[in-house]
Amino acid sequence: MTNIFDQIDNEKSKELFEMMAHPLFTPFPTSIEDSYHFGWARGIALLADSVYFGNWYKWLSILGKGEWQEGEPFPYTEINTTGNEEVRKMLEKSFEPLQYHGVRAYEFIEWIGFALGLSWFKKPNIDEKQWEHLYKTVNFELFYKYPSDYLSYFLAENGSSGHLDYYPTPLHVTIMMNKMLEIDSDAEMLTRTVFEPCLGTGAMTLPSKSLNVVGADLNHLMVRAAAIQAFFYKPSMLYVPKPVIGVHFDRKELRINKYFEFETDTRIYQGDSLLGEYTAPKSIFLEDSEFVDVYFHALDLEKHEIYQYEEDLEHPWESLSKEKRFEIVKAMAREIRPDNVLTNPPFNMKISQHEREKINEIERRNKEFLALRENKQRLSMFHTIEKEVEKEIEIAKSTSKSKNIDDGQLMLVF
After folding, report:
1. What is the pLDDT of residues 300-322, one digit of tens each?
2. In the chain, how many domains are there?
3. Which residue from 40, 67, 293, 378 puts its CA 20 to 30 A from 73's CA?
4. Does residue 257 sit in the same domain as residue 382?
C-alpha cells in the first residue's frame, strides 16, 4: 500500500475519516503478528476503495439513511475486460512458491478471505514462513487500481478448470449481456432485481449497475471467491443488513416490492439453484458466524415460509398484530420473482441420479402437502406458487426426455 496516502485529496479525506470510524474498518497492521487475526486487512482494502471508488462509503451512507433516491451517488465499479498484468504477476508471485509447499488454490483464496474478514472463511493452515511470504507479496491496492475479474482466471489456471464444468465466462461477454439489460430509467435499472443462479466468481454480476443483485452457486470455492470480489467491487451485493427505501421498498406505497432475504445480511448464497435451497452466513463480517438456510423459490412447497401463515391470512389484515404482519410481509417478500435472471449455466453438467430421486421425492411430498389443503378456501397467491413449482418440477423431470439436449443435462428455467 505504499504511497496510497499521497493520492488522498481534501474531498476524499472527510470520507476516509468517516470510514475509519465505521465498525467495519479494522486497524492497519503494524507487524506480521497482526495478520493472524480475522479481518486484519479489511482496513487496508477499505482505504484503497476510498481512494479509487468510494463504493463502501456510498453504500454505507445509503444503509445509514435507509433510503436511496434517483440522482444520489451509488456504488459502481467499471470492470476492465482484460485486467492488468501487474495484478496477474502479483498473484503469480504470491501463489507460485507456495505450491511447492503443498498450498492449494483453495487455501490461497481462504487466506485472502480471512484477511478481509468475511465469515465464509476461517484461518487457513499455512505455515509461518509461507504466511509471511503472502503478507509481504499480496497487494490489495492493485485490485482497486486495476478492477477486473482476476479470481476466475486464477482458479481456472490453478486447478479448478473443469470442476463442475467451471470455465469462466469472458468479461467482454458478461459486460455485453449487462448492457443489453440497460434501460433509460436509471432508477429502474439500479433497483431491478438481478439473480445469477450459477454465480461462479461473479463475472456476470460485477458489471451490473443494479443495487439489487442476488447470486448463488453450488460450488463452495466459487461462492467464496465471489464474496471476495463483491467486497472489492460490489458492496451492495455482499452486505445488505436491512431493506432500503427506494431499492427494496416501493417509495410511494412503502411496501416491499423487490426480493429481500431477512435472515442473512448477504446476497451471496451457496447451494443448488435447481432445487432453490441454499445456505449463507447470518452475519457476513462476523467471525464464525452461524449459517442459515435460504430458500429462493424452492421446489419443496414446505420450504416456502408463507404457508406458515395460511390461517392468519384468513383473518382481516387489521386484526393481526403489528409483529405478525411484519413476519407475513417478510415471508411474502421471499415469493417475489427477480426482474432479470442473468447467467451462463454449466451446459455440460448432468443431473445426477441422486438429484433426480430428490426431485421425485419433493414432488411426492408436494402432492401430500396439497392434499391436506384440497378442501380449504385459499388465497390466489398460494395457487400461483403451486403452479410455478409444478411447472419447474415438470421441466426438471422432462430434461432427459428432450431431443435437443443430452440425457440428464442440467436445465435451469426461470
Report:
1. 999 999 999 999 999 999 999 99
2. 2
3. 40
4. no
